[in-house]
Structure prediction request, 237 residues.
Amino acid sequence: MQILENKTALITGGSKGIGYGIAAALMAQGMKVAITSRSQANANEAAAELNKIGKGEAIGIKADVRDFSSQTHAVEAVMKKWGRLDLLVANAGVGFFASIDDMTLEQWHETIDTNLTGVFYSLKAGMEGLKASKGYFISISSLAGTNFFVNGSAYNASKFGVTGFTQAAMLDLRKYGIRATTIMPGSVATYFNNHQPNEKDAWKIQIEDLGQMVVDLMHMHPRTLPSKIEVRPSMPA
Prediction:
């Protein structure tokens, strides 16, 4: 089993939802975690809550995955703070759901630029750090990355892209000893698309479940790689 204490992680979009759940699970293992948000206040607030866990250490960084220089800044902040990057989780994402008639150009570009290009920017910025640590790259795709649906053109395109990108990147990265996995969740109890998690979400995947999945991947022997993981509620509502 891999020892995670004092290893470091950078999680994009980590101030709430899936990213926060992953950060909390890693913190409980004693890891040092940097979370990003477009809002420095939100990043700081989430980091302060994470630091109450009592293990590890968390910092908040203002960064926008749509901007490569912003992602480079985030990685540099991690390296300056801790001197290494062991895990990069490309989690930041948005969703606009509309027909082609109603989808605006702005909504299309924000979806693709955040969900797909942002994953590329994050990995590109973190490559040298991951090479040095023989680290792990994890992208958060979706079951929408293999299953298309009405009004899903932009979101489906972005998540199909993330799934394909990560699987191809896995082939590029493994020669450096870097592992790569894409996690493809179904319904998760998060704030995604302006949803407010509530007691009616008990049937959904919980953010701590995905956090545990990432911990399990990190603990797995480096010789073994689950490169693509579909995860869905056991009993849908």
Q: What stands out?
A: The chain has a mean pLDDT of 95.
